[in-house]
Design goal:
mainly alpha; 2 domains
């Protein structure tokens, strides 16, 4: 009889061991995949990654460097990711997946020269504007908000426009197209 109990105990621990091993393996694989994803996302959010393609370095990056988002009296600067990538969550991952098309077009040469870039500038800008409008300028609002605007410090025209925009539910991109990059000629 004692032999039977030992045998049953071994069988039960063996049955529990397999699912536990599988669960542990799944946990560590998921953790590894998540870590790899986050590492990749952070690496591709860096300014050095964004301007590693000559298409960006020789066009929009030069424009950005002349904008108030790069050089201003407060010393606060932004990076490409600050304006073009959500800060966290599913929206960030979705935006990164969507940006894969940029890599595709880089590799097939869609905008490999300044002339090709300029011929696509309107389409590229409209895509970004549409995204920003749909997200209620979420990335802008990470730094700017109607609540924190000091309207008293703004000139009369800006103050009036900001009050109207807030009341009518407009979002930053409705008025601030071309704030960090040149507007397409067609606009």
């Amino acid at each position: 009889m004692p032999d039977l109990k030992i045998r049953e105990s071994r069988n039960n621990s063996h049955r529990l061991g397999r699912p536990l091993t599988v669960l542990t393996l799944c946990f560590f694989c998921t953790l590894g995949a998540y870590t790899a994803l986050q590492t990749t996302i952070e690496a591709t959010n860096s300014m050095s990654f964004c301007i590693s393609c000559h298409e960006m370095r020789e066009t929009v990056y030069l424009e950005y460097k002349e904008s108030t988002h790069s050089a201003n009296h407060s010393g606060v600067t932004t990076t490409c990711a600050d304006c073009h990538v959500p800060k966290s969550g599913i929206a960030k991952i979705a935006r990164k997946i969507g940006a894969a098309k940029d890599l595709y077009h880089h590799f097939i040469g869609t905008i490999e020269s300044k002339d090709k870039f300029e011929s696509h500038r309107l389409k590229l800008a409209e895509s970004v504007w549409s995204y920003m409008k749909a997200s209620d300028s979420r990335e802008c609002r990470a730094c700017h908000s109607f609540d924190k605007l000091d309207l008293a410090e703004q000139d009369k025209s800006a103050r009036k426009k900001h009050l109207r925009a807030e009341d009518s539910g407009e979002t930053c991109i409705d008025c601030h197209k071309g704030i960090a990059h040149e507007l397409p000629d067609q606009v």
